Amino acid sequence: MSFPVAATSFRVPQSGGQGGVPQSGSQAEVSQSGSQSGGSQSGSSQEGEKKAPYVQYEVEPGFTIRMRHNIDPAMDPKKLKRVIANRVSAQKSRWKKLLYVEALVKKSMELERETSVLRAQLEIAIQEKRRLQIEQRQLKETLAARFQDCIDEKGIIEFYKVEIERLKKKNMAPPTNPT
């Protein structure tokens, strides 16, 4: 919804009609609670009790403000413009605040969704890390066992080499007769 940049895009209603109330052709409407311009009647009000009339000013098409206080029809037009400009400004501020709060709520929901996705990803990463740590430990144990087997095999090979050399020397040596 677009708002007027300055409060100069509206017209102050001209006095006319009965009792200073603007005529139906002007840009402002006066209504009693639930009577002319579609105002709703609250369930707690009594039938005989009438609320103070309010004036609706259409600042732009689709953008109206309500003057909830009794306005003196003889009020200075400059003062009336200032009052209307203040009301427009206040309504814009409320509208901007609502938009800001809605944006914050949307951002909050988005961040909550992102947080839940990241938590799930973190849990998966933690499980993967544990699995990889277990695999690494198993590989280290296997490597250590194979290294030990290699060392043992080298030791056995060395033992056999020494034994072979000893036997060769024994077989090559001339036999000694004890007689």
Descriptors:
nucleus, 3 strands, bZIP_RF2, three-stranded antiparallel beta sheet, mainly alpha, single chain, bZIP_sf, 54% helix, DNA binding, 179 residues, disordered N terminus
Mean pLDDT over the full residue set: 74
Number of helices: 1
| Total E-strand runs | 3
What integer value in Å does the Rg equal?
48 Å
Task: State the shape.
Answer: rod-shaped
* CA-CA gap between termini: 129 Å
Structural class by secondary-structure content: mainly alpha
Low-confidence stretches: 1-45
Strand order of the largest sheet: 1-2-3
Percentage of residues in strands: 5-15%
The ordered H/E elements are EEEH
Question: How would a crystallographer describe the biggest sheet?
Answer: 3 strands, antiparallel
Helix content: 40-55%
